[in-house]
Amino acid sequence: MSFITIHNVWKNYGQTPVLENIHKEVEQGSFITLVGASGCGKSTFLKMLLGIEKPSKGNIILEDEPLKAEPDGERGIVFQRYSVFPHLTVQENILIALEFQKKPLIARMFGSSKQQALQKVNALIERVGLTHAMNHYPHELSGGMQQRLAIAQALIANPKVLLLDEPFGALDPGIRNDMHELVKELWQQDQLTIFMVTHDLKEAFSLGSRLWVFDKVRHDPHAPQNYGSQITYDLELSTDVDDSEQIAIAEEIKSTLHIDQSEAVIA
Amino acid sequence: MRLINRHPSRPLKWLLGFLPFVIIVMVYIGASHQRLAENPNDKLLPGISKMVTSMERLAFEPSKRSGDYLFWQDTLSSLQRLAMGVGISALIGLVIGLINGAIPLVRANLSPLITAIALVPPMAILPILFIIFGLGEVSKVVLIIIGIAPFIIRDMQARTLEIPAEQLIKAQTLTANTWQILLRVLLPQILPRLLDTVRLSLGAAWIFLIAAEAIAATDGLGYRIFLVRRYLSMDVILPYVVWITFLAFLIDWLLRIISQRLYPWYHSQKAVQGQTT
Ligand SMILES: Nc1ncnc2c1ncn2[C@@H]1O[C@H](COP(=O)(O)OP(=O)(O)OP(=O)(O)O)[C@@H](O)[C@H]1O
Ligand SMILES: [Mg+2]
Q1: Could you tell me which chain A residue has the CA closest to the CA of B165?
Q2: How far apart are CA B235 and CA A75, in angstroms?
Q3: Backbone angles phi, psi at A7, to 5 degrees
Q4: Nearest CA of chain A to the CA of B54: how many Å?
Q5: pLDDT along chain A (267 residues), means of 10
Q6: Is A147 part of any domain?
Q7: Which of A14, A144, B154, B210 is a plausible cystine mate for A175, CB 3.0–4.6 Å?
Q8: Residues, CB-to-ion distance under 5 Å, ligand 2
Q9: Which of A158, A182, A203 is the last residue before a domain boundary?
Q10: Cα–Cα dist A118/A106, whole Å
Q11: Residue A58 — φ and ψ, nearest 5°?
Q12: What's the complex ipTM?
């Protein structure tokens, strides 16, 4: 059995199909990047992996067990925004995960147990480069720093699967490159399985070990809502693939995606 | 430069803000002078000096009947009732509103009831309160609670529901249980919003307090105003009204300062939202 098996999954919202017939197996340690036109169901797919949406048909198996129908510590998430707690400092935002784990009733640590936990917290803060901002509140951080905090927060609970929904969409290109390095490093060190949605094709190719393209296969020109998306490309990405070859595939994907001009510029 | 882009300097802002008050006082003094010139016994617009002597008597001379300094006694009694009523309402509003907002099963159970209670006009059930609780302190406090608690509950519920779902999901991925989420994610974020709501509900709380004191009390700011009304003692009523207004302003200001001190993250968040939306 694979680490994750997505078994014939369909998803409708009311009468509207969003995803059709998704059938995939994923190995542990994969880094899957998901691309597709806006509204094609990428976030919906992540929500099903997270357990906050249920497949209308089919099921998802994680390590031989059906996926739990609510979020838990096995799956971490970083959203585009609103991911961190605004009322806690950087350090508290990460410490709180350990407090949740260790203190079911008061959800707070004191004294030596807190000191011990803080060592782990501070090490992680250092890893994502936020040591100098340890005692700042999220509103005092830049967008990139907030996302680094969100990533650190997701990692402290030691999830098996990390879900990233356009985590860098709001960041400018320079910071984005730093973030790519960070995520890549964390992925390689922690044996995580990562699913990352992005609108940036270059990011999708350079970061992942596997690329999925979501697109509609069936079209009804009079009623475009009649069909949902499927995974139309499933590419193994390896770093030694010749760049020109990847660019050719990227061009092909770009032309099949229904990405309009403005988005094509981003990608 | 367009009018919308012209901002007053700091001193000018103070000056502009003060001006209306000065004008009102001037107009009052002028009108009072005029009436007193025509009829020295006029009670409607007493002169400032008359008000000062009346208030000196109430504030600095013990009452002949009880030996109390009536003005301070009134202030203390009213503030106590107000604090009890608002404090208990805030506590009820916080607990029920938070749990209602956070837990759908409880919300389904309680929300319709609270909406219905909020629609009952509190003044209409004041007689019921007097019948049940007697004419003592409890009735007055309970009137304030019935008057403002439903509003605070509903507002706290709405504020709880406003907290982005992403945060609740994040907490769950960090293995938090429901209780932990209430305690560490929702409660601390709701507290500054509770202070906002309490500030908004204070106006209504004063109305209910003064109404209750007017009808059944032996002291209190509202009691005194309605008592001296019989003698047309505007020289007491007017300073009392100004004093009540000042107290209301002071309490509001204190709550705002406390909130800014305790919850800096909340206020800068609000400032940022104010800029972008
Ligand atoms: N809760 C919901 N109820 C009804 N329809 C929904 C709901 N959530 C999403 N949808 C619909 O499902 C479709 C897919 O939405 P989804 O958010 O997954 O798209 P996406 O691929 O993430 O798009 P984007 O790239 O813009 O984020 C959209 O047409 C959206 O309108
Ligand atoms: Mg999306």
Answers
A1: A82
A2: 71
A3: -105, 100
A4: 51
A5: 88 90 91 90 93 92 90 92 91 96 93 94 91 94 91 90 89 83 86 91 88 85 79 78 68 65 41
A6: yes
A7: A144
A8: A 43
A9: A158
A10: 17
A11: 85, 180
A12: 0.88
